[in-house]
Structure formats: C-alpha cells, structure tokens
Amino acid sequence: MCTMMRKTDPVETNIDLGDTDDEDLDADLYEEHEEPQLLWKAELGDRMDEVEAVSPLVDLSDIKPLLNERDPRGVNKCLKVSFEDVIAEPASVRSGDRVWIWSNALFEVTRVWIYRIVTVLLAVPVSIITGLIFAILSFLHIWFFSPFVHHILIITYWLQSLWSIVLDIGVRPFLTSAAKCYDGIRLRLTLE
C-alpha cells in the first residue's frame, strides 16, 4: 500500500559504512535459495540505499563481499599504517600530550581524506587505463603469441623429432651408464 509523505515529516537517513554485518538484510535477501537471488530495483524498496545498483538487475552475491572485504587476498598488507608506525617518540624526548594527540588526529584525518580525494580524482582513469592494458595484453596473448608459438612448434616438429632421437641415441646411454657406475658409491658420515 502506498502512502503519501508530507514535506514537513522528518526523514531518517541511515548510512551503512560496511563495518558491521547486517544479518537481517542477508536473511531477508537470500531466503534459503541455492542460487543468488536477483532483485529488481523496485523490489528493494527501503533497502535501495544499502544496495547500490548499477543496472536494474542486481546480483547481491557480487555486491555484498565487495563492501565488506576490499583486499581479500592481502595484496596491500604493507599499507596498513597507523600513526605509531610512522612517528614514535622515545621516552627521553617527548612533546606535550596535547601536541601528540592533535598530531595523531591530524595525521589520521589527512591520510584518510587525501586518499579519498585522490581516489575520487584518479581511480576511474587509472582503472580504465589498467583495464585497457590488460585487455590489450590478453588480446595479444590470445591472438598473436599463442598462435605464433603453436605455429613454430608445428613448423619445427621435424627438429623436435631429430633432437629427441639425438638424445635417445647419444646422450641417454651415456648418462644411464654413468648413473649405474655411480650408483654403487655410498657415503657414510660419522662424527668422531
């Protein structure tokens, strides 16, 4: 049933930063289905802010893991830096407590916000460039390098056969006899 909202009614806004698991949302959306449940935007209703859809058809199994875990393989473990990892005062030389607290706060705020600003400005262009590079490399590998290698292997099949014969006739008997000669040697190490 649809109800009209007056303009004077306060609107409650909830912001999900992805730092907590929303078990009720997961239970409502997946409801014991083996396959991921696909929802239309109109069916999401009040939960539209929590699940940002790129297309009208949303696969929730793809979106939820990206919000919670953005580095699942630990590629950037070296970038988990806190203030104490960068700046540390020994016991003999110390600044005032308020200076230390404000320095810590400013460090964290600056680190977070500069990263956010730079990602807003550069994340999309860098992702497009890297996507183009990987697409070009994939194209070259699939359509040029791999067929070229197979072509060379087909052309040089006679050379491979000749090399196999040379190894079987000339090298293998020599190495086999040398292995049998050295097979009887035993080394025993003792401590005296």
From TrEMBL:
GO molecular function, one term: molecular adaptor activity
Membrane topology: Peripheral membrane protein
Biased composition (Basic and acidic residues): 1-10
Keywords, comma-separated and alphabetical: Cell membrane, Golgi apparatus, Membrane, Transmembrane, Transmembrane helix
GO cellular component, as recorded: caveola; focal adhesion; Golgi membrane; sarcolemma
Transmembrane segments: 113-142, 148-167
Location of region: Disordered: 1-23
Protein localization: Cell membrane; Golgi apparatus membrane; Membrane, Caveola
Subcellular location, principal: membrane
Protein biosynthesis as UniProt keyword: no
GO biological process: caveola assembly; cell differentiation; regulation of cytosolic calcium ion concentration
Short name of any one Pfam family annotated for the protein: Caveolin
Domain of life: Eukaryota
Function: May act as a scaffolding protein within caveolar membranes. Interacts directly with G-protein alpha subunits and can functionally regulate their activity.
Family: Belongs to the caveolin family.
Protein name: Caveolin
Organism, scientific name: Oncorhynchus tshawytscha
